[in-house]
Structure formats: structure tokens, C-alpha cells
Amino acid sequence: MARIEPLKLGMxxxxxxxxxxxxxxxAAGIDGDWRLVAGAFSTDEGRxxxxxxxxxxxxxxxxxxxxxxxxxxxxxxxxxxIDAVAIVTPNHLHAPMSIAALDAGFHVVCEKPMSLNxxxxxxxxAAAERSGRHYALAFTYSGYPMVEEARARVARGDFGAIRLxxxxxxxxxxxxxxxxxGNRQAEWRTDPARAGLGGCxxxxxxxxxxxxxxxxxxxxxxxxxxxxxHVPGRRLDDxxxxxxxxxxxxxxxxxxxxxxxxxxxxxxxxxHGEKGGLDWAQMEPNTLTLRWLDRPAEMVRAGGPGLxxxxxxxxxxxxxxxxxxxxxxANLYRAVAATIRGGDAVAPAGAAAWFPGVADGVRTMAFVxxxxxxxxxxxxxxxxxx
Length: 386
What we know:
about 375 residues; alpha/beta; Rossmann fold; Dihydrodipicolinate Reductase, domain 2; nine-stranded mixed sheet; five-stranded parallel sheet; 12 helices; globular; nucleotide binding; Oxidoreductase; Gfo/Idh/MocA-like_OxRdtase_N; NAD(P)-bd_dom_sf
């Protein structure tokens, strides 16, 4: 059997002191599918060079700018240049960098949200279409094995017609004015120029929305929303409440907040049909609870019996060995690698093609715009215009 070489990854952003860049690097490295070989990690020259040194990169491939990285890597022979770019910058750079990377012939793995607005999302979609390259979006929670198990059970009709979808994402880290006190992570996330139309809405509300549609298979048709900013002086929302109507008649509620003092990363999804429902929480990710109308509740565990083939493809350890956020993220990177290489023939069954991408990005930006528009109007219900 021929040896499969790791794909080559370049990264923009994620320099010394950044959170999500390190997460991407860990996730990309878990399965051996990727090797980080190049980067433009920071506009601060010292931070950029130090990051490259810490990561053991050839200093010639630690670039002063994103544009310099694209130009230099494109000039290399095909077997030496990067295969994909990981974009881990603040939101305002997602669209221009994604489009430039795609047009230069590189695949893209981008942090969410996709862009600042729906118009930019459509521009990225057009770039992906004309380039023929793959575009992946880091909606990490869809990579959890038990999220896939939940999706598979809904899709095969275990619960009957879906009636209720409830999703919440509760954090407390922005309960005080960290953004006004020099916290870099808080500062850009509450700056409309860098974060976009929504604060909490764009940062974690998009995760909740994507997860609800991904698992339920239902599409939001209209919504009624309320955006609140609790911390005085903050320029974007820190609390979101949305009533949801789905195209097939289901009803739902989405709650996202970053001012629930004391909460950590309380992402929870409940989906109910006519026969029963499911309950999954990100802080206990290896357990999926099933509740039934006519029999006792069940607790389904990662690695246990009776799981879908696609669920098993996202597990790495036997039952009882916890897998979490980094492994879920790694599932996304593995799916992108398998898809680039040609699908499941070179990966575990079900590993390729499932990852969130252009369609998810456009949907979430349509959701963000609809929530903002509805919350600022006197209209009770608003549709999603893609």
C-alpha cells in the first residue's frame, strides 16, 4: 500500500497569545493528515517570528503578510506548496482572505462566522464555485460523535415527525466589561468593524443555529428575535433570544448569551418528535439521552453498542475513554483531508464530505441578518433571505 503523505497547511492569524489558532493546530495534527509548514501568524513582526520559531517552521515560510504567503506558496512546485489555508483571524478578514486563497488555488478551513454579512458570504460561495476548491467552516460541534448519532437517529425517523427544537448556548465570560479593559479576545468580538452585525449572535448564536439545523434536518423559515446588550457601553449584543418556525411545521427556541455569570460553554440541544426526543449537552459530550413516550429513557454512550457507522467513524478510543472538543475539531480536519484526497477510499467509512461548508455559512449569515433586522423592527416575524 502506497504511503499517504500529510497534506500541507498554511495558517493566517493564530499567533502567540491567540486561543483558536492553537486549537486548529492541535486538531489538524491529531490524525497525521496535516502538517503545518507555513504561516503569517501576526501583523506584529516579533510575534509572528516567535510563533514560527515555537512551531519549528522553516523561517523562510514564516511570512510577513497573508498576501506574501499566497504569492510565495503559489510559486512553489505543486508537491511543495501548501494544500490549504487555515484562517483564524477576526471576522472582518474572513471573506477577503477566503476569496484570495480560493482564487489562488488553495482549499480553505475558516473560523466561523463565515463573514461580516450575507453579501460577503455569497462572494465566498462564488469563489469556491469558480475555483473548484473545498471550503470548510469551523462549526466544531457538528464533529462530535454523539452529535452525529443524534443526527442519524433523527434522519432515520426514530422520533417520528419533528415538532420541537430547543437549542441554547450559555456563557458568562463577558458578564463584565472585559472589552473595555484591554482583553484582546473580548475587544474585537464586541467591535462592529471586526466582528460584524452580531456580537454574541455571531460568536456563539451561529453555532447554536447551525447545530439545530444540522441535527434536526429542519430549516428555519421565519423567526422572532430579541437582542440585548446588558453591559453598559458595549457596542454589540451580549444576549440573544429567538423564536423559530421551521418549514415543515416544527417550532423552536434559540437562546445564546455571554452574560450568564458563572456559565462556561453550556451548549445544549433538545429535539422532540411525535414518538420521543433526544438531549445532548456539549459539557457531557459522550452521552446522548433519548426519551420516549411509551418506554423508559435511554442513555447512549460514545463507543457503546448500536451506534451508526458514521458515528463510529468519528471515534478514536474505546468506550469510557473521554473524547471532547479537540477531537471533534480533528474530525472536521480529517473530513476535509479525506475529501481533498478523494473520499472514503482513503479514510474510515463516512469520514469524508460531511463537514460544514459553504451552505452552512450562507445559512448562518442569513440567520444573523434576519435576527438583527427583526429585533430592530416592529415586525413580529421575519423570513430568512438567502
